[in-house]
Amino acid sequence: MSSSAPPSQESLTPKARIVLYWMDLAGVAVFAISGALAAMQARLDLFGVLVLAAITAIGGGTLRDLLLGRHPIFWMSDTRYIKVIGLTALFTALLANSWGHLLATGNGALVIADTLGLALFALCGAEIAEEAGKSRLVVVLLGTITASGGGVMRDLLTSQVPLLLRRDIYASAAIGGIAGYLALRALGLPRQAAFIAGMLMVVALRLAALHYGWQLPAPQLSF
Length: 223
Hints:
Layout: H1 14-41, H2 46-68, H3 74-77, H4 80-95, H5 100-103, H6 108-131, H7 136-157, H8 171-186, H9 191-212
Helix pairs in contact: 1-2, 1-4, 1-6, 2-4, 2-7, 6-7, 6-8, 6-9, 7-8, 8-9
C-alpha cells in the first residue's frame, strides 16, 4: 500500500447512501443491545445501561470523527442515533428477564446482526477516512476504530479484556475486509461494488472464525 491516497472523486449513489444510513441505524441498535447486556451483567443501574449502550454503539464513530476533525460529530447533527440507542437500551432492559434467551450474546441471530454491524461500521469508517484524503494505512486504522472502538470502551468500563486484544478474529476481520476493499478499488472496481465486497469479506472472515474456532496465535513467554 502506498503512503498516501488522493481524495476519491467517486461516491456511492444517493439510493445506496439511504440504504446504508438505515443499515447504520440498525447496526447502532445491535451494538446498543450489546452494551446494555454488558451493563446488566455488570449489575449497573438503568442510567449505567443507557450510558454503556451509547458508548458501545457510537463510541468508535465518535473517536473517528474527533481524529478526523469532523464537526459536528455525526450523532450531534442527527439525533436519530441517540433516540435509537435510548429506545433499544430500554427495550433490552425491560425484556432481558423474560426474553433473555433472545437477547443473549451467544444467540445466533444476534451474532449475525453483530457481524453485519461490524462489517458496515468498518467499511463506512473506511470510506469516510478515504473521502477525507487519508493514506490507505490510516483508512484501515480509522475503519477498524469505527467498528471496534465502542466495544473496547465497553469492555474497559466493565473490567473486561477488550475483545480487540483477545485471540478472536474480530478486529482482524474488519482489517481484512477494509484491506480487500482498498485492493479492489486499486484494481479499478467501482466504489459501490468494492464496498459491498469488503463488507462480505468481513462477514465471511468473522463467521468462518466463529464456526471453525479460528483464533490468532498468542505468543507465550518461555520463562
